């Protein structure tokens, strides 16, 4: 089943054409690697899906319905979550507090409601268990490894029963062991029927975990192929321009 469909989507900022006439579809439970050099348009494309930017042209459909999003909260309302490269975590707070940041649970009503820490610790623990992460709700983020921090950021997406998770360079600047943890988390999202768009410069990660790879160059889509039908050498050629299209 197609969960997301982009049709001839473009985005320009004045005279700069950041994304030019891109179309692709995303199936439920599919992991798609989005690759390209710096400035290829990957982040702009993902930010349109996440509600940060509105397309200059083209349409974005979710389960067949056209989306008209003005801000990220609109995308979240449709089941689209994003994990930014910087993760946007607060180091001085616990894992549970970060998971519920801005969406805290309360007991009581109106101005007399108080934060329900027990419920937040419990639910965060359940999510970490679903993700098979060793992260504990009461652990401070500042004491966590890169892989654990990713688990916290991914756990945040599970609060809203996300249908699509957009991930921006989740394995950048972490150890080999932590990379394996993050790729395992992506597989668990897929196994739960959640679609993942993975922006990455790391070829081994994309070829390990993705079902398809989309390559962008200078704002255009130059390839959209099943991983099994491509190779790291071909994708490198597409990224650099040595291969025009595939």
UniProtKB/TrEMBL annotation:
Cite the entry's keywords alphabetically: ATP-binding, Nucleotide-binding
Tell me where in this chain the ABC transporter domain is found: 4-243
Lineage of producing organism: Bacteria, Pseudomonadati, Pseudomonadota, Alphaproteobacteria, Hyphomicrobiales
Q: Which InterPro entries match?
A: AAA+_ATPase, ABC_carbohydrate_import_ATPase, ABC_transporter-like_ATP-bd, P-loop_NTPase
Pfam families found in the cross-reference section: ABC_tran
Q: Does the keyword ATP-binding apply?
A: yes
So where does this one cross the membrane? none
Q: Which GO terms describe its molecular function?
A: ATP binding
Kindly provide the name given to this protein in its UniProt entry: Sugar ABC transporter ATP-binding protein
């Amino acid at each position: 089943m197609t969960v997301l469909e982009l049709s001839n989507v473009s985005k320009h900022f004045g005279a700069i054409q950041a994304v030019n006439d891109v179309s692709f579809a995303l199936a439920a439970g599919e992991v798609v690697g989005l690759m390209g050099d710096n400035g290829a348009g990957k982040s702009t494309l993902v930010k349109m899906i996440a509600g940060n930017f509105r397309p200059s042209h083209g349409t974005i459909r979710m389960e067949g319905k056209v989306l008209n999003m003005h801000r990220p909260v609109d995308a979240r309302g449709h089941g689209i979550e994003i994990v930014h490269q910087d993760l946007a975590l607060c180091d001085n707070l616990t894992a549970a507090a970060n998971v519920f940041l801005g969406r805290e649970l309360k007991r009581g009503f109106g101005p007399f409601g108080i934060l329900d820490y027990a419920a937040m610790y419990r639910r965060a623990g359940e999510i970490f268990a679903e993700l098979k992460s060793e992260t504990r709700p009461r652990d401070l983020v500042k004491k966590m490894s890169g892989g654990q921090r990713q688990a916290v950021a991914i756990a945040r997406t599970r609060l809203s029963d996300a249908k699509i998770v957009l991930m921006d360079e989740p394995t950048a600047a972490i150890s080999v062991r932590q990379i394996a943890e993050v790729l395992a988390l992506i597989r668990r999202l897929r196994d739960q029927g959640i679609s993942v768009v993975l922006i990455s410069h790391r070829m081994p990660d994309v070829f390990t975990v993705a079902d398809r790879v989309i390559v962008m160059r200078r704002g255009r889509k130059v390839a959209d192929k099943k991983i099994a039908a491509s190779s790291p050498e071909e994708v490198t050629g597409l990224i650099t321009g040595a291969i025009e299209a595939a």
